[in-house]
Amino acid sequence: MEESRVIVELGESRKKYCYVNSLSSREMESLSAICDTFLPSLTTATSADTFFQSSASMAGTPQLIGGLISERLKHPKKWLIRLGLWMLSTWIGTFILCGLLSISTHFPYFHTFSQLSQHQRQNILLSWSLSFFYPLRMLFKALKLLTLLVFFTQVDENLTWKAIDYPGPDPQFKTLDEHKQKQSEMLLGPLHKGLVDMTLPRDIVANSLQRIGFSAFANDTKKKHKPYSLVIRCDAVVVGSGSGGGVIAGVLAKAGYKVVVLEKGKYFARNNLSLLEGPAMDQMYLSGGLMATDDMGVVLLAGSTVGGGSTINWSASIRTPEHVISEWSNGCDLEIFDSKLYREALDVVCEKLGVQSEIHDEGFNNAVLRKGCEELGFPVNTIPRNSSPDHYCGWCCLGCRDGKKKSTCETWLLELVKSNNGAILPGCEAIQVLHKQKRGSNRKSATGVVCRYERKGIQELCLVESKVTVVACGALSTPPLLKRSGLKNRNIGKNLHLHPVTMAWGYFPEESKKSYEGGIMTAMSTVVANYEKSGYGAVIQTPSLHPGMFSSLMPWVSGVDIKMQMCKFSKTAHIFALARDKGSGTVNSTSSISYQMDESDEKNLQNGIEKILRILAAAGAEEIGTHHCTGRKLNVKKASYREFEKFIKEESSRPMRDLSTQICSAHQMGSCRMGVNPNESVVNQMGETWEVEGLFLADTSVFPTALGVNPMVTVQAIAFCTAQSVLEILRRKKC
């Protein structure tokens, strides 16, 4: 089988990210046909001629997808895509997957997928989307998501931006770049003095660390540390730099302890942000944003850069709700959450983040949500944000260009750097937590971390020896690290909650603002947040959707329809329902996540969609619809009351657990939960693991249950409390 090895590039940024396409020519033939079915070349007489006439293959999309499938995509069902592509390159395989739709009335009657007409291929893909055979639904969803996401995030000679009324990078910052080009903080970032470039020669890296006061040396392979090219000794090593790790690192360093922060992702200073959706997702999101549960039921988004999720989140800064505090303290017997310390931690965190609720100007999506709620008499609140009142940036999901959003890079990590007691090592992935048996005890004691980094294309190992180890690499990455490190607690990776999200949209042709402009989250409704007074339900908020994510979420019913829908992109508002889920899943590995939504969660999302459709209509939408794969929509202006009510009832009662409606998750939690019993939890109330002394967890994985609101403030408050426990241990060891 011939192998086509093509280097592909994901757009323009300061650095090119390339993936080798190793799909065979037969697989590529099928993939190209599928991509051109999703996005065909169309003949139109509109002002968007170039956009409509361009097919996916004309833009090089199949080659880009081939590279992603070959190297970037790590999903356990990836084999299904490759098997499907190979089968579609044969007539018998095409008949098996496509059935009678692939047969013609003319010789040779049976054809490969690429030999079929556009009409036949379109009908086949539509049949897959609702097939009783689950793997076909998975195949459809995976290929649709990849095709639309890649096509609409390509930036070289972009063919879509003008047609869909999208400027690309935030145009407000072009003059800012020119004005501040010579300022080192803009070029290097506020953390530059504490960053250690691991791509430099080992001796230079060791000397840089020694100047900050660390014991570090480039290892001579003849010595006892033979496997490691670099050895660092410190008081505490923190794995992860997000809302958990960043807090602990800052607190410990300010207290005078030497802290090393290991971050798998790269660091992007403000001036080096591309603010381009494709490159930013590839560089700053876990697995490039190409993560989903094993059954493709939920698409997962998580940060993977210095600052973690706080760098690319949507600014919402909501304190732990009182009913959640009550459940965790009373129902889970965790006294820490009803303590004076935790209340103080919430105050400290909110002050550090500059949390405030004032808005100078509200963006399109949030204005729609607020107006619709006010018209219907639904409760609507202003969301507190960790940004200034004039922060009107819809690009913050791709990094904050002006630093007004107070991520850990602008707060806790900055405190670490200013203390001269900390070092941040980007591009270093922790692969094992080290521990040894304690004398005269059944427990083990943490001794440090082994991490892996790349220098000159070669993978090297670094040993960080420490008195205390803190793991804070997120609910999806912390469990695999603990398992690789030999921890046996049966709860590791279990009880994963995802805050499942589903959306509805409304088209507002007369709106002057654009869908991608403005603060991402400033309004929220709790109209279905406390279903049957259970403490569980769904909050209603707005997302940030740039063209790639927008297109991959919207229903696909034909190539014409998706292009017409994309031409309405800038005037289409989205609102979502986020469920506080009772359903749970398991983190099996770094690429395998299973999840089962509970029936009550499905009901809460359906209730949310029902309210959202009414909100959109009440706000003045001309057209409304959901993300169900049938792509039904209603012209509100022309529909009768009866037609409107029927549409609402039918669309809000559709199932959420069969891949027919896209479900997303930007909050993952609970996979190493906190508790009072090692048989039911992974860490105690101090955040220390039951198995290994001196090993603490400080991220959303320790949440006892799903939270129900945006988790940034809660995880930072928990991390602040955990930091006090770590300080006690370090003080004892110092004595």
List keywords for this structure.
single chain; 735 residues; alpha/beta; 9-stranded mixed beta sheet; 7-stranded antiparallel beta sheet; 24 helices; 23 strands; globular; disordered N terminus
Low-confidence stretches: 1-16, 175-186
Q: What's the pLDDT, averaged over the residues?
A: 93
Query: Structural class from helices and strands?
Result: alpha/beta
Largest sheet: 9 strands, mixed
What is the terminal-to-terminal distance?
67 Å
Overall 3D shape: globular
Percent range of helical residues: 25-40%
Q: Strand-residue fraction?
A: 15-25%
Number of helical elements: 24
Number of strands: 23
Determine Rg (CA atoms, Å): 26 Å
Structural topology:
Elements: E1 6-9, E2 18-21, H1 25-38, H2 49-53, H3 61-72, H4 78-88, H5 91-98, H6 118-129, H7 134-153, H8 161-164, H9 174-179, H10 184-188, H11 202-212, E3 215-218, E4 230-239, H12 245-254, E5 259-263, H13 277-284, E6 291-292, E7 298-300, H14 309-312, H15 322-331, H16 340-353, H17 364-376, E8 381-382, H18 412-418, E9 422-426, E10 429-437, E11 444-455, E12 458-471, H19 478-484, E13 501-507, E14 523-528, E15 538-541, H20 547-553, H21 559-566, E16 572-579, E17 584-587, E18 593-596, H22 599-618, E19 623-626, E20 633-635, H23 641-652, E21 663-665, E22 692-693, E23 695-697, H24 712-734
Helix pairs in contact: 1-3, 1-4, 1-6, 3-7, 4-5, 6-7, 7-20, 12-18, 12-24, 16-24, 17-22, 22-23
